[in-house]
UniProtKB/TrEMBL annotation:
Keywords: NADP, Oxidoreductase. The lineage of its organism: Eukaryota, Metazoa, Chordata, Craniata, Vertebrata. The gene is Der. GO terms for biological process: glucose metabolic process; xylulose metabolic process. This is DER reductase. The keyword rRNA-binding does not apply. It comes from Notiomystis cincta. It holds the Pfam family adh_short_C2.
Length: 246
């Protein structure tokens, strides 16, 4: 994707940046002039990312480890831009949800967003920096999906957290929004939705008749990070092809 917005000299942190949407956002921001720090728990992914885009700095850790996150993110900042992309999807039917799946999902999909955003926002405020935070949510925050009890619930909680963040951080000139995609054709998305029978049931509920591509999400994130959206905060940008209107 060719960058259409400039982030020259601005410092950005992207979590879950080893693969998929997070990786694409990190690369796009770097190519648009930002100084990017990419965070992932998988060292091999970060190594390949720096080979692809040598200017990107990296942090390798598990976001569930609050002490490690506090130290590493605190030392790497301050940042003006933050994309909370890291997430896990523990798919189990409601009656089969396990405590471990629930805890892991809460730790990453909700707790890590809160914690990383606290660290970054406190530094923005201390430095007097205006900023923008984009939390990657999902259409699953708005609509019940079978076997997604924990995922839907944590993404719904993320949407409300983002609204409260927008309310409290707005006076400090920090904007907070979410993007809420449908199924996205990352490498993993193509694997999980390659079965025509499985994909047809979902696509038939999308008026545009297709899943999202990675660039659809990346472009929306870049817009919300940029000054082009200077009056937008506390919003959820649906990237769902109309799924929620059907």
């Amino acid at each position: 994707m060719e960058p259409h917005l400039s982030f020259g000299g601005r410092r950005a942190l992207v979590t879950g940046a080893g693969k998929g949407i997070g990786r694409a956002v990190a690369v796009a921001l770097s190519r648009a002039g930002a100084r990017v720090t990419a965070l992932s728990r998988t060292a091999a992914d970060l190594e390949s990312l720096t080979r692809e885009c040598p200017g990107i700095e990296t942090i390798c850790l598990d976001l569930a480890d609050w002490e490690a996150v506090e130290a590493a993110v605190g030392a790497a900042g301050p940042f003006e831009l933050l994309v909370n992309n890291a997430a896990v999807a523990e798919l189990q039917s409601f009656l089969e949800v396990t405590r471990s799946a629930l805890q892991r999902s809460l730790d990453v999909n909700f707790g890590a967003v809160l914690h990383v955003s606290q660290i970054v926002a406190r530094q923005m405020i201390a430095q007097g920096l205006p900023g923008a935070i984009v939390n990657v949510s999902s259409q699953a925050s708005k609509r019940a999906l079978r076997d997604h009890a924990v995922y839907c619930s944590t993404k719904s909680a993320l949407d409300m957290l983002s609204k409260v963040m927008a309310m409290e951080l707005g006076p400090h000139k920090i904007r907070v929004n979410t993007v809420n995609p449908t199924v996205v054709m990352t490498d993993m998305g193509r694997i999980n939705w390659s079965d025509p029978q499985k994909s047809a049931a979902m696509i038939n509920r999308i008026p545009l008749g297709k899943f999202a591509e990675v660039d659809d999400v990346v472009n929306s994130i870049l817009f919300l990070l940029s000054d082009k959206s200077a009056m937008t905060t506390g919003s959820s940008l649906m990237i769902d092809g109309g799924f929620l209107v059907s």
